[in-house]
Amino acid sequence: MTHDHQRHHAPGSPTTVQLNHTAVYATDRQLSAGFLAAILGLEAGAPFGPFLPVDLGNGVTLDYYEKCDEPIQSQHYAFLVPDDRFDAMIARLETAGVTYYADPHHTEPGRINDLFGGRGAYFDDPDGHNMEIMTRPYVRP
User: Fold this and answer.
1) CA proximity to 127, closest of 15, 16, 27, 21
2) 3-state class (DSSP) for residue 89
3) pLDDT at 137 over 60
4) Is 62 buried (19+), middle (13-18) or exposed (0-12) by CB count in 10 A?
5) What is the rounded average pLDDT of the residues 118-126?
6) Whole-prediction pTM value?
7) Are the beta carbons of 41 and 6 closer than 8 angstroms?
8) What is the DSSP string of 20-66?
9) Of 12, 108, 132, 137, which is least packed with CB atoms within 10 Å of its CB?
């Protein structure tokens, strides 16, 4: 049985698979969403049900969700950021007293990396999620 893909393609729907949104667990959604938005130079959106969204510039939303009944499992989130905004993000981390690192294992504090000809850094959010900012995407084999 074959499918007519044109028949199932509704107006406004994508022609490729794309990440649209993901839930980010937090003990305090306002604190965590506000923290990330401030560092990235964005704003947290209005609450959407139990979620507090941070809209990224490529159509992806991080939906912060409070989870208070068990410890938060640390996840990794990597953000491709404009080179001309990277220094401001590092400055906001310094102003907030948040240590950033050149490596994902947090062994090189106060340093950035130069992976793939760009610049990058890692830092923890209030719940220990390992956040990464980078100016060049990874070159994959």
Assistant:
1) 27
2) helix
3) yes
4) buried
5) 98
6) 0.89
7) no
8) -EEEEEESSHHHHHHHHHHHHT--B---BTTEEEEE-TTS-EEEEEE
9) 12
